[in-house]
Structures are given as C-alpha cells and as structure tokens.
Amino acid sequence: MTTYIIRRILWGIVLIILVSALTFLFFNVFPSADPAVLRAGRNGSPQTIAYIRHELGLDRPVYVQFWNYMKGIFLHFNFGYSFYSGASVLDLIKDRLPATISLTVGAAIFWLLMGIPIGILSAVKRGGFLDRTAMGGALVFVSMPTFWLGLIVLFLFADDIGQWHVFPGANSYVGLTVSPVDWFTSLILPWFVLAATSAAIYSRVLRGSLIETMGEDYIRTARAKGLKENRVVWRHGVRSAITPVVTIFGLDVGALLGGAVITETVFDIPGIGRLNYDAIIHSDFPIVQGTVILAALFIVVANIIVDIAYAYLDPRVRY
Amino acid sequence: MRGSRSAIAAAITGLLAVGLTACGGSSSSSKSSASGGSSTTSGVQSIPLKPGENPSGQSLTGGKKGGTLTELSNGDFEHLDPGSAYYALDYQVVQATDRPLFSYPPNSASTIRPDLATAIPTTANGGITDGGKTVTVHITPGIHYSPPVNREVTAQDVAFALERGANPNVGNAYWPAYFGSASPAPLEGSTASSYKGGPLKGIQTPNKTTIVFHMTKPGAATLISALSLPLSSPLPPEFVGPLDKHAPTTYGTNYLVAVGPYMIQADKSGKVSGVGYNPGKNETLVRNPNWNAKLDWRPAYLNEIKVNVGGDSTVIGQQVLKGSDQVQLDTVAQAVVKQAYQQYPAQITFTPGSGMHYLTLDTQHGVFKNVNIRRAVYAALDRAAIVKARGGALVAEPGTHFIYPGSIGYAQAGGAAGPSVAWNTNVNGNVAEAHKLMVAAGYHSGKYTGNDQTQVVYGQGGNGPAIAQIVANAMTEIGLHPKVSGVDQSTMYSKYCGVPKQEIDSCPTAGWIRDFADPLSILLPTFYGPAIVPTNNSNWSQQNDPAINSAMEKAAAIQNPAAHAQAWANVDKMLVNDAVAVPEDFDNQPNIESKDVAGVNMLWNEGTWDLAFTSLKNP
Question: Which of A43, A264, A268 is the closest to B538 by Cβ?
Fold first, then answer.
C-alpha cells in the first residue's frame, strides 16, 4: 500500500506539470487578449506595451517562461504576480481559499446527508411510492441549472429580496473567524444550491448500485444465515454499493475545491472560482495558471484518497 | 476611452436581456426633462422619462450629513492610481479621493470649473499667453495630504504627478495623446523617445503654488480640458517615487494617499491592500482627516462608503431597488432597467451622453477603401434595430454623427438628426439609397459583384451577436460577403481590430467614451491619422485623410470656444461625409439607487454616483 501511495503521488506531480504545460500552451496559442496591451491601457503607445511585455517576461520564448515559472514554484513556492494588480498569486489564492473550502465542505456534507439515505431507501423500497417520489424529485433537481436554482432560492428565501425573508441573501458571506454564526447562516442557501444537483445524482447512482448489489449471492447467503435485514443492507449491501459514490464524491469535491464559479457569482462569495473567472476576463495569466494548478492538485489528492478508501471499503481491492 | 465598461457589463448581463420596445406616447429628448423635447429621427420613438429620471436637474446642495452608503458592483475597479485610472468606475473613486486641477461639476457634462486650481486660465486673467502655447495655473494653498504624508500640497507635486504619466511603470493611457508625442500640441520635451518620466522642460514650477505649461504649438484649450483628467491630481514624490520603481508601480494597488474629502481606508503606513482595498472583493472609503471643507467646493455628506464587488447583476439590482442606503456602481442589467422604469421610477436615472458605439470600416484596405461602398453600408444599416438590440429607447438613441450628446460641438454638428447627407437621414436603413451609392461606386447592378469576403470581427458578449447580425444583413443587402467572427470583446480590440496589420474590414461593436467635453477627445484618438499605432490602435477605421487630419490640427489650435466648437463640428461633418465609420447609437446610462438615497449623478462620467455630493435621506 505504501509503495502504491508513493507511486501515485509521484505520478500526480507529473500530471500537475503536464497540466501546467498545457495551460501555458493554450494561453499562448488560442486567441486571448494581450495582457501587456490590457495593462498599457486603451491608448498605450507601442513603446509602453513593449516595455510592459518585457517587464512581465512575455517577450521571452514560451518554453523559457514555463521553465522560469516551474523553477519559481518548486524552488521558492512562488506562483508569480498578477499581471493586473501586481499582487502575489499565492496570497490571492490563500485569501480566497477559505471561502471555497467552506462552500465545498458544507455542500458535500449536505449532499451526502441527503443523497445517501434517499438512495438507500429508494433501493430498499424499490417500486414503491417513496422510490418513485424520490427519483422523480431527483430528476427535477438534476435538470435544474445551478445558476437558475440559485436565483430562484434568492428570490424566494433571501432576507433582502426574497418573498419570504428567511436566510441571508447574496453578498452576506463572512469568514468563519469573523462570526461563526453569520458564516453558517450565510452559506445555507449556497450549500443547498450546490448540494441539490449532486444529492440527486448520488441518490440515483446509489439506488442503482445497491439494487444490483442486493442481488448478489453473498447477500442471499447473509440472509440465509439469519442476519437481520438492516445488517444485511448496511454491513453487506451498502458497503459494496457505495464504491461508485466514493469515486464520484472524490472527483466532485476535488473539482469544487478548484472553484464553484457559478454559485460563487450568484451568491457573491469571494472564492477561487470567482478569482479564476475575473482572471480570465482580464487575461491575467499567472492567476489562471495558479488556480489551474490548484484545481489539478485537488483532483489528484482526491483521487488518491478515493483509491485508498476503496481498499478499506472493498476487501477484494488490494494494491 | 474605449467603451469597455458597456461591453463588459453587457457580456455579464446579456443572458437576461429584455429588449425594451418603444411604447409610443409623446416624444422627448433624452437631454431634456420629461416634459418633452424634439423627437429623434424617425424609426425610434423615444420613451418619456418620468420625473426625476433625468439627472440634469439634481440639486447639489441641501443634503444631510452622515451615514454609510453601500455600493454594489458586479465589475471591479481597474486602477485606483490617478496616474493610471482610465475607466468610469475608477473615476468615481478617484474623484472622491483626489483633486485634479480642473473638474466637471456633477450636473454638467460640458462646463469645466477649477478644482485644485484657483481659476480657469484665460487670456484675460493672464493664464493663457504666448498665443496659446503657455498656460499658467495657480493652485489653492493650504490643502494637505491624508496620513501618513500629511504635509501641504505644492505645485511640484502636480508636476511630479503629470510627469510620471510618461513612466511605463505607471502605464498612463492618455499621456501621449494629450501631453506627449501624439498630441497636436505636445509639452516641450515630451516627444523625445527617451523621455520616460522625470523633470520636463514643458512643466515649470516657479514657486509652491504656480505651474507653467509650455507647449510646442498653441493648444491651451485642449490642455486645460486634459488637465481635468486624474493625472493632474497631485502626488507626493517622496512617497510615490520609490513605489514607481516597481514594474508595475505598487502605488494604487498596495499604497494610496488622498487629497480629496475621502480616502481609501489604510494602515499607518498608507497601505490599503488588505485594509481598505481587496481587489475583486471590496473597498472602503472613509473621511480624509486632513480634508478642509473650507478649501473644497464639494460638501462630502457621507461618513463612509463601502463597495462590494462581485455577484450577479440581476441580484444586485434587486438588492438596490428593494434595500436601503445602497446604489449600484456599474451598469444595470437590462431586465432590472425595465423593472425599475415601471415599478421604481423614482430610483432610476438615465444619463445621456454616456458614450457611443459605431461600426468601423477599414478605409485603407479591402472593399472599404471605396468611399461610396462605405456610404452604401452606412445607408443600409438599420440603426433603429441596433438601438433595440442594445435595450431600447431608454438606454440608447440612433447615432447620426460622432460628437455625441453632452459634448461641445454636438449641436453645431447637427444635433440629434446629424448632417443631412443622403446616407444619414434614415436610421431604419435605406436599401434603395444604398444601391444608388453602389452604382456610384462602380457597380451598375447596385450590388457588389466581386468575390472578396468582408472580415467582420465583433465582441461576443451580451448583444454583440445580435448587432453583428444586423450589420451582416446590411452588408448582404449591397452584395458584400461578410465573414463574421465573434471573440471576447477585449480580444477583439487587442488582437484584431486594434492591430492595423490584421486588416480587419469591420468591427461592429466598437465603442468610445470621451475623456473630456472637448470634442478632440472623441475625434482625435479615433480618427486622426498620426494617431494610428501598430498595436492598441484606437483609430480602428485607420482614417488618414490629409484634409481631415489638417482640419483636426487647425481645430485643436483654435482658442475661442465658439470657433473651437464649430471647427470640430465641421470635422465631424467631414467624417460623416466620408463615412469613415457608421455611428450606431448614442448611449444613455441607467443608474439605480435605493429609495432612501439622495443620489447625485456625474453627468460627465456616465452618470455614476458622485460620492462627494450623494447623501442619505435618513442618515
């Protein structure tokens, strides 16, 4: 197992370097606004633009820029500086990351607490009223775009613009250390919006997986041995059936930690997603690169954790 | 400046666009009060403004002191350094924290007044001498910087601030056009290619309160207008100089000082980043403790202004309309404009003269080298449809020439109707006239018979695709073969339309906002031949007619205001006559406030809220 983990970590580093290289390539090959021109302003003279391009290192060959960038990361943990504001990319990411972590972790708990019980109940009561209602509801939530759902919940439940003044609305996010109560209440609606679609998907996936697992021979054996149905379902059925859920959970959390840009925008939460979006608008490549590396890192780590979790959940899996 | 604010806002709000259709009724000019005025050119009926929606009559006095105003904005600031600021949102903050030599009062888009200066220089008061080549300005003594600088402002500080405009680390966008090598009347010493800031022969400070500007040619009128830009706001060299050594300068991003009634909240060292300024998140303005109300013409009623950046424009609009003590800083979503007009008329204003858009036509390459083909496109284009695509008659009116409402020379150039040439008179598009012009161009069938494609590049956000389609239709009517491509608006400027060697035939979503009321700032950067540069070019049509260039140079040198305005109006007529571009629309900017805000709009700055005059009704 230890050898496996070390090997995965090393391959993860290779993957992150590859992702960085591809991002460099895309930024330089596909049409995007010239950051030196944007920085110089609308009437910037050619001399000013050339000077800015030189100061930002954009006049060097792409492979030299990439080499210098990778050296900066590995030797100095320096992710560069924003073309736009001059701020340190690492500082900007550190400033925004808590909001994204708050949003992701809370939403993840939400969707697990909603999706898993609903999926299990639907599988156990398959074909019944509960199953049909739950799966119908899941289909509805899967079909709802996050942006639209976010606006709807604001217009219904936000305490400033909603029909019923229940929860804090957009632009109410505060840090956990500033006020834990306000932090929690400000995230209820965003958590719900982010969790709704995922919970629906997870319930459907778990239902299908559990129905299949409950038809296995070893489940029949467990019942034949006289085990209680609850124990059969939880200890034997769910334990095997949940592995696909673990897979997608790892990917989902990893991806969200890279920034839930739509939810952050609708609710005005200053997270990584919005940082990335603003950077793309301004062709602020260092920030784009930094957030891409961060997202890749989260995906790699999430996948490693998922693979380790498999070994504990499913005794048939060995590394 | 380029119309980036409109473009970016449109990109973000375009998904929820609800076109406002004209609803008939009595016509009114967007410049007058709701009680009426001349109708616009046929095809687009104006929608009457309700009482209070036209900000021209706002009172600047009588506000209540105190309270905290909250500004909500989807878009962020670009630069808070007055040397770099070149965007409507930046101007709002800079106007509250800095003091240029001259300013526009909020209720005027065309009449300049002294700000840091004691008077407008004229020939009569000795401020303009040497045939208009020398301008002398005296500054008000006793004005102090905010902490940690604290000391009194001097004329040397103004000189330093202006000179740093040439420093590439500051990246001032308009230094070359109004003070340097691209200006018709550059400051002495500014045109040397080696000049990158520092003491300049053309700016002298004989004492602590006097600045003397020396130009190589007569250009006093334009220089005085240009000194209303933030670059002329004083800065302390001992504080800013070391920061300017960084590339880019860290003044404006990490550190700021103020001379106006407000300052961005800072720590004891003057550091604002992480204190009162968090890019992409928020900003807090507090009172400048060293501000002396007796030495300022602005009342500064508010105690504090909090700016929150980010969020969805539709949600922001709802929060402002239904909330309290709030205004929206950036462009209002189209759906919210409609709702506010219908349900909250006392909380929305429409500011005319907020810029314009036009269809550029490459006059140096391809089919549009032929003036009659350009005129044919002009005639065929349905400008009324473009107004509808932009959001309707409340937010736009058909463009009929290039000096837009509120600017000096607008009336002399023809006002709402514009020059009465055949290709300009019908804003709905006149295909028959277009065919006649194609015959004059040498195509006897009335349509283009060649095989060349016409490259059209537009900005994809918001209503860009709809406008590009309207333009493509017009071109197709006269037999052209438009090849239409959509890219991000910034990319459109920086990689295509703003790069002459790309030879893009036409850009339908180009826009321009003037820098000051002098029509030079509308016509010179965009249509003056010597202003063409290899990158970041703003003369998108690459207009380089010697007669037009010469007319601009002569107009810039005229000091008499009436003659100056008429000369530029004549240039405008020449541009329309040559159809160097097609004016699409004149913009009216909507702005919203909560019901308990007594907002005052800056007519000269797209109607953004003037923080030094706005107050709360119940502080």
Answer: A43
